[in-house]
Design goal:
244 residues, alpha/beta, TIM Barrel, 6-stranded mixed beta sheet, 27% helix, globular
Length: 244
């Protein structure tokens, strides 16, 4: 039977729309969207919040700056300023990559101090990084784990997984990711557009009852598991709704 979910009455309660995976240019050189344009696109697609998860890895151009963290935060500051004008909440995140392989990890619940502490620790690898920086107020998730070139990180070194990565130019094998996350018993799973290019906005969203105002509230929300996915405008239960 269906678990404690009534359609459409419950659906209407999840009024806030969040983008959890977005990149801007020039911070992420693979992105074609400047930060002000990102906020405009979010407004057009009726998002209430966006988490800016630009790439944070050794080969990124921002790492060549005299102050890499300051360079990394420039796009975030512009997006946040534009978000305040347009009524879009902009939260700081990052997509980490360590020297050990090509895996990407979405990290939520961070601030400038955390970036400064970890900018020279990208040689750690996920196991050591998780051991040192795991926190109840922070989430470390593997992004698009079944995309070509990825290696599954040990589940003990993750708080959860991005199961629904909806970047249309990559095969992230989302069904396989969702099944693996369920079989592994991850308590947090997420959906995100992995937004890089105009025209892809609106592919995925998190639907929530409340609007997180900072990284701490976002982590609390995700840990609560009280949210829905929206994929291509259609609602989806992130944890499944059926039991035997």
């Amino acid at each position: 039977m269906i678990q404690n979910f009534q359609y459409p009455e419950d659906l209407s309660a999840y009024r806030y729309k969040l983008e959890l995976h977005a990149h801007t240019s020039p911070c992420s050189p693979c992105s074609e969207i400047p930060p002000r344009d990102l906020i405009r696109l979010m407004e057009e697609q009726h998002y209430d919040a966006v988490v800016l998860t630009n790439h944070f890895y050794q080969d990124s151009p921002v790492m060549q700056a005299e102050d890499p963290v300051a360079a990394y935060l420039e796009d975030y500051a512009i997006a946040k300023e534009e978000g305040e004008k347009r009524g879009i909440q902009v939260l700081l995140g990052a997509e980490y990559r360590f020297w050990e392989n090509w895996n990407d990890y979405l990290v939520y619940g961070i601030e400038e101090a955390f970036l400064r502490e970890t900018v020279n620790r990208l040689d750690l690898g996920i196991e050591a990084f998780y051991r040192e920086y795991h926190s109840p107020s922070r989430l470390i998730l593997q992004a698009h784990p079944f995309r070509n070139g990825m290696t599954l990180a040990p589940p003990c070194c993750l708080d959860g997984m991005e199961t629904m990565n909806m970047h249309p130019n990559h095969n992230s094998r989302v069904a396989r990711a969702a099944l693996y996350a369920r079989e592994t018993g991850f308590s947090v799973v997420t959906a995100g557009t992995d937004l890089h290019h105009p025209g892809h906005e609106g592919s995925a969203a998190l639907r929530t009852r409340s609007l997180p105002r900072d990284g701490r509230q976002l982590v609390e929300l995700l840990r609560s598991r009280d949210y829905l996915f929206e994929i291509g405008g259609c609602p989806m239960l992130p944890f499944g709704g059926w039991e035997k």
